[in-house]
Amino acid sequence: MSLGAKKDLDARLAAYAEKGREVVSKEVHFETWTLRYNRMHWVTVDGLQKHWERARVDGEVVAPNSVTLKTSGVTALMVRFSAGERVTSPRDEDHHRHRRLPGSKP
Question: How many domains does the chain have?
């Protein structure tokens, strides 16, 4: 590797390191009427109770490894975070508190 190529590679790697991981939305409020438009951020709706009737997903990341979801008109869904995505900065993760849904058991 030439000296110029090494400097170019070092500059590119430094830019990636400066940018950090991709940040994704902490909350999702998604409404659809059809599976043709079934994805928003980290939620994919895979099944509807009835096509052409409103289906809704409200989701929130409540801790680094925990989400809460509320759905209506949805029979199947998937939650997916890609490798390298983060919801908050590492220093914010200490401030998250896990919330229980009303009626859930401890």
Answer: 1
